[in-house]
Amino acid sequence: MLSLFFATTNKSGKKKRKITKAERLKQLQEEEERRQKEEEEARVKYEKEEMERLEIQRIEKEKWHQLEAKDLERRHEELEELCLLEGCFPEAEKLKRDTRLLSQWKHYIQCDGSPDPSISPEINTFISLWKEETNETLEEVIAKSKLVLKLIDKLKLILLETPPYDLEDKNIKQYQGSILELQELLHLKFNIATEILLRQASTLADLDSGNMEKVIQDENVTLYVWANLKKNPRYKSVRFSETQIGFEIPRILATSDIALRLLHTHYDHVTPLRPVPTSLREYTATVNHLVKDEVKYEETAVDKELQEEGKQQENESNSVDEEQTKFEEQSGSEVQRSFVQEESEATKCEVEMKLLSETVLSAQFLLIKNANEKPYIFEDNEVDLCQFTTLGGVYHLDILELPPQCKPMKGWMIVEILKEGLQKYIYPPETTEDVETENAFPPIEVTLEVQENVILFEDPMVARWDAEGKHWQTDGISNVSYKPEDRLVTFSLETFGPVTLIQDAHINMPFQSWELTPLDVDQVLLTVTTVFTTIQIQIKENLCLLASITLSNKKHFSILEGKWMTPISFICALKEAGLNIFPSEHSHFYVVINYKDPLIEMKAYRQLALLSSAFAFGWSKWNILKEHLSEKPIQKPNWTLLMFSGDRAQRLKINENSETFSEALKEETEFHSTLYHMVKDFASQKAMEKVRSSSCQLIDSVCYMLLSTRVLSYS
User: Fold this and answer.
1) CA dihedral angle for residue 669, residue 672, residue 678, residue 680, rounded to 10 degrees
2) Which of 366, 468, 613, 642 is the most exposed place for a label (fewest CB within 10 A)?
3) C-alpha to C-alpha distances, 215 to 149, 225, 262, 264, 406, nearest whole angstrom
4) Per the database entry, which stretches of residues form a coiled coil (predicted)?
């Protein structure tokens, strides 16, 4: 320890000199001066930067105010031009009305024997005559059902396609009443035909099993009937036509005089009809009244003007020959009256178009209006049809009492016909006092096949119809399983009746992305991408077509592909196939969405439709912050971000890859009151000419599809 200490002291040499107090004060003074100098430099630098920032801010603010003033100055002119362009919507509505009238006329001159379901006497006569027809076989009923289903679909389309302001309450009641009567009569005819078949069961018995089996397949109906003639207690597994479709029945049914019927209707005539909205009709009635008053006022003013001019001509005609004067006055008066009448007609037409434009606007607004609350509070096990949707039609499952069989006698067939008709076998019975075991009436295992054209994105749920409550419910059903490769659903059912498959109506919402792309002349492609699928919809004039479906990155074939349909028919067909990308007024209760002001959203869709023939629009990640649109002219590969607030459109400085959102205006751009004029600033003359020459029907159809999908709110 000592040697180390001495070595250290020797190495350090002489001792370090202490700093004096004066030197310490001098150092502190120098440090203080240096600190003050640095602070002063920092202050000067900060003030300079702040002045520069404020100056830039002032210039930008001044420029912003100048742009706002310029926008305000030309707003009236731009809105007037937009109003002229949006005249395509009432014009398209007029064409729809003409098409509906032409359709009625074509049906009238066709004279094919089928009734016009919209005309009450014709459809009532058809129903009465069909009721009188008796002893129809299942094959005859199925053949007749094709016409009946067409009539029902036509009435449903009339209710859907006719705007609410063109529908009267009495017509709605008439159409809905005819639909219900046709549905009930069709099902009754199936019951009567089934009874006729079961009377002949003994003559149609299978040689191997001794029981009767009948299978009839059609495009709208698939019917399976099995009659238990042998009553073999070991014959508990009923399978139709060597398929897996059928039942596992308990011993008590295997030994009873029963028949099993599975009637799979590919349509749904069980779920109650949806009510037709009335709010718009009330609004239109008020507007109609105001417009009629305005037209009447214009006609009165014209008549008064004619009378005054006639008096003035009489006072000024004293210096001319009386006969010549009379002739000139009459001819002049007639010409003038004709001119004024033409002017009156033009005024009346202008007022009517104004009314039509207002009512179309109201109808479009109704499509995107969110409901304030759910229809009512649902009970336990009741299916909420605002949240779920039925798929694949309805499976009518029935256990029927076997009617008396026909017997041959001296070349005749004698059969006892029961007055009460076809009777259902009650299972389980209402009283079970005579039964010893508790499990004598177990649930019946049922295996069904899912309709081929229905797409399921998850295992379906099974619901049964509650005839008393008039709704679907999920109780009384257990052990549900689904084999997607075979498209078979198996479950256990406590009591028989109509059952259906249900799926979440919003399984494809919200959307992951969307794109609206122009194709050939007057054709547009709408692409919607969801978690499970990508759907491409081609729009041409007043028709829509399913271009393609992609499931799990693989193209899926659908029977809907290649079929042109009107927008409403197309939407109904997609929903029935399980491809629901169309939110309802209650969907926001079940999906997390980007809430938009409905009026701004409607304006955006209308203006997107106007530009859709020459420009592509697509989803943007910034849509979660502000209502704006990605836009791409056909001539340029790069996308440009636009922001639209209903009364102002602007190009944004940021792009899709920016880290934060900013409303900063892109350099050398201006504000505009519409998307049309915003795009006009940087678009080619050829593109704008294509926009102005677009078909009014195409614009209307694109707008309707945008309003129906609500891609801005549900992406």
Assistant:
1) -100
2) 468
3) 21, 7, 10, 11, 21
4) 15-82
Q: Which of 484, 397, 486 minimizes the C-alpha distance to 444?
A: 397
pLDDT for the residue numbered 334: 56
CB-based burial label for 331 (10 Å; 0-12, 13-18, 19+): exposed
Sheet strands (E) in 181-333: 212-217, 221-227, 237-239, 246-248, 258-265
**Quick check: 583 and 659 in contact, CB under 8 A?**
no
Distance CA 613, CA 621 (A): 24
Calpha distance 100→117 (Å, rounded): 13
Q: Which residue in this structure is represented by tokens 């009553």?
A: 231
Minimum mean pLDDT range among 12-16, 381-385, 453-457, 523-527: 12-16
3-state secondary structure at position 379: coil
The sheet with strand 615-618 has its strands ordered as 554-556, 543-551, 533-540, 523-529, 513-518, 615-618, 628-633, 640-644, 649-651
The reported pTM is 0.83
Distance CA 676, CA 365 (A): 20
pLDDT reported for residue 432 = 61
Is 629's pLDDT higher than 80? no
Q: In whole angstroms, give the CA distance from residue 473 to residue 478.
A: 13
Structure token digits, residue 195: 């009874």
Confidence of residue 634 (pLDDT cuts 50, 70, 90): very low
